[in-house]
Sequence to fold (510 residues):
Amino acid sequence: MTSPQTRPAHGPDHTDVLIVGAGPTGLALACDLARRGVAALLVERAGALFPGSRGKGLQPRTQEVLDDLGVLPAVRAHGAPYPRMVSWQNGERQGEWELVERNLPDPTVPYPDVWMIPQWRTQEILRTRLLELDGRVRFGTALTGLDQYPDRVEATLTGPDGVARTVSARYLVAADGGRSTVRRAVGITMAGERIDPRPALVADVGIDGLDRDNWHVWPHGPGGPLLLCPLPGTTDFQLFAQFDPDETPDTSPEGVCRVIAARTHLAESAVGEVRWSSDFRPRAALAERFREGRVFLAGDAAHIHSPAGGQGLNTSIQDAYNLGWKLGQVLRHGAPEELLDSYEAERLPIAADVLEISTRLHRAGGVQDGGLRRGPRTEQLGLGYEHGPLTVEARVGLTGDALRAGERAPDAPLDAAPATADAGADARSAAPGTRLFDVFRGPQVTVLAVGHELPAVPAGVRTHRVDGGVAAEAYGRGIFVIRPDGYLGLATHEPADLPGYLARLGLHRP
Fold:
């Protein structure tokens, strides 16, 4: 990729990681790196954050990620559970149903249900957190040139003033969406298919005359189905309308008003301000690889999903969560660079699996009662890295339902739990009401001993011991290395297995 002919560039700026794209993926990654003390520069071509509600559903696993990043209280305060769906025909309500399964309380799953919050609000919350961590976003800044070297990436960034500047980074992460400039610059192809020939219109719009307790559906409206979903924390509804394959949706405010009036019992006068609108054709696509040298792909730059199942934004944030701690270990703790190879090895199969889920849900059938019902597979709690390169299950004789290395580390209450400590610090008892997620929270690796003495560990590793209760029941007896992204890396009974495994993560005895 060649740099544009602009005014001369200044000397190169330097950073550890350059992140291109300030959507949920880039913002989550920037937050994670900032709390690890990794210098990161986040740039965004647009002049502001994305303004629409598009990815509005946060799955249970993503809520756990946001809990660890310190933003979940704000997310919960500005969101709400998914409302029940209600169908309309000839101006009359036809019946209600659930789009998502409601889960029973479980002490190992603190956030059991999907949470609705507009994407723009999620991004605002992440940006606020980034500012708290002394990070920032350069808006109006486009990547216009890219060269790779054995020890660095040099990127040309053109700002709103038209001046091109060179930034030298140890690594670059493409979080710049489905039309990724970075992905094309490094020559990574993306294979995919259009999974529905019908174009769709999405908009955020004010509506009078509809209750906000339901997600309203007109499945047989003239011209195609239409849905209006109340957006929590706002006075708006999200519009979704499908069209015939040969139509082009009119995204103007007038076009949005007309389609609502044509397909529902609402008059055009009931439609208020159209705050954002867009059209798209549902597509599923997967990059052939997630890394080229020192450049990594994350989020929509690596995988594109149908909105069915609410998987795209969630998978993208979890990409960032997987990559962030590995970059931190390499750049701040001297972990071998081979650790970064595990990003693609772990996340590409996950993305492929999630694409299959969302595509199948999309093709399962429209917006009729139950047609797009979501359940355990969309919640992403069961996704893991059992066959990944960082997974070591050293115990034998496990029962079929036993928790294994590579799986998500469950939460559990610790009302009477002893001995939590960072290496080199005195062990301290967990305060009443503490949970395992409180122990795990933060950028560190944690060693959890269940029914074992606390082992000796290198500096920077947190340890915790439990001998009973929900935690012991959930984990079973063993010594577990909890990765910074909340998955079980090593599961063993032998303390002698720890040094070699932790060394792979850049954690050595002093």
